[in-house]
Amino acid sequence: MCSTCGCGHGEVRIDGVPVSEGQGDPHWHQHEDGTWHSHAHVHEHTHTHTHGGEAHSHAHPHAHDHPHEHGHGHAHGHAHSHGDHEHPHSQTHSHDHTHPHAPLGAVHAPDVSAARVIEIERDLLERNDAVARQNRQQFADRGLFALNLVSSPGSGKTTLLVRTIEALRKEVSCAVIEGDQQTENDADRIRATGAPAVQINTGKGCHLDARMVAQALPKLPKLEDALLFIENVGNLVCPAAFDLGEAHKVAILSVTEGADKPLKYPDMFRAADVLLINKMDLLPHVDFDVEQAVAYARRIQPTLTVMKVSATTGEGMNDWLAWLKRGVEAARHARLNDVQALRQKVAALEAQLQAR
């Protein structure tokens, strides 16, 4: 149980597989038209059972996603004795079962003090932030411009992502980590564009956390100098508290919602660097004051970058795409600078060793 938001934990699935099963990386390949596809590999595990002196082998096929390099060892050999015969099995699988969301059901018990609740919440967020820092370093090492897209349900995030990927396809490589409580519908929509996507289903959870992103990242192809979109679960409360390692949180507010959303959900708009006012094509048909919404948002976050867009008509998309391309270029330059700085350090150390 998450003490910050009260959501359940332990039901997280990545591309339909429970995270506790520790599936390996998928085998991605890119076609000439730039589209990506992954394939699962089936491996057979043979178990030998001895019955009254006779050995019987049984092959069990298991579907695993693996990258091009395969180096997973599985040893089987712990024994179970049943009467007069013995079944030797052994499994030496190493899995890390720690989660940023520890079982915190006791937090809601009436005999737990407010101070203890705060202590648990602080520990939860500190563990999340530690993983987020590791994610951020991975993104930097690969020159990924990572964005955390946050909004209420129905704001048009996925439609906007599809249009964005289609518009950038020939210029920028894109990948998506999708977050929803259930279904792979949004990931399927992204994959239809040819971009690789991994679906995280949070079960009862109402937001993504850094560990979920860390577990999903190896299931994407090893892109460099690219855009990584993380589409969070539709929710304007809990995602505000969880750093995923992104460069920016991008809040999306559609004109079909209330203009006072920034005042109702200040933590989210305070955490965001960018505000997209979406579905501008519907503005003539709804009662939504764009300037008032912007004023409310900047009351909460004065430095907010605001863009008004319509994924349907293309209004404002050029500004959004230009902003994205600048971010990708900045991430690429930062990666190259880091590589150059590392090479200079190595050269300096080599020179010192030679001088001795």
Protein model, in words:
The protein has 356 residues and is an alpha/beta fold. Helices cover 32% and strands 24% of the residues. The protein is built from eight helices and 15 strands. It has helices at residues 114-142, 157-168, 185-191, 210-216, 261-264, 266-271, 290-300, 317-355; strands at residues 13-14, 17-18, 27-30, 36-39, 41-51, 54-64, 78-82, 85-89, 145-151, 174-180, 197-201, 227-231, 248-254, 274-278, 305-308. β14, α7 (290-300) and β15 form a beta-alpha-beta unit. The chain is globular and about 75 Å long. 34% of the residues are buried.
Quick structural overview:
By secondary structure, the protein is α/β, with parallel strands linked by helices. It has helices spanning 114-142, 157-168, 185-191, 210-216, 261-264, 266-271, 290-300, 317-355, and strands at residues 13-14, 17-18, 27-30, 36-39, 41-51, 54-64, 78-82, 85-89, 145-151, 174-180, 197-201, 227-231, 248-254, 274-278, 305-308. It contains eight helices and 15 strands.
Give, in order, the helices and strands: EEEEEEEEHEHEHEHEEHHEHEH
Q: What is the tally of helical segments?
A: 8
Strand order of the largest sheet: 2-1-11-10-12-9-13-14-15
Main sheet attributes: strand count, strand direction, barrel closure: 9 strands, mixed
State the end-to-end distance. 58 Å
Average pLDDT figure: 79
% residues in beta strands: 15-25%
- Poorly predicted runs: 39-51, 57-109
Q: Name the shape in a single word.
A: globular
**Structural class, judged by helices and strands?**
alpha/beta
Query: Rg, please?
Result: 24 Å
Helix content: 25-40%
Total beta strands: 15
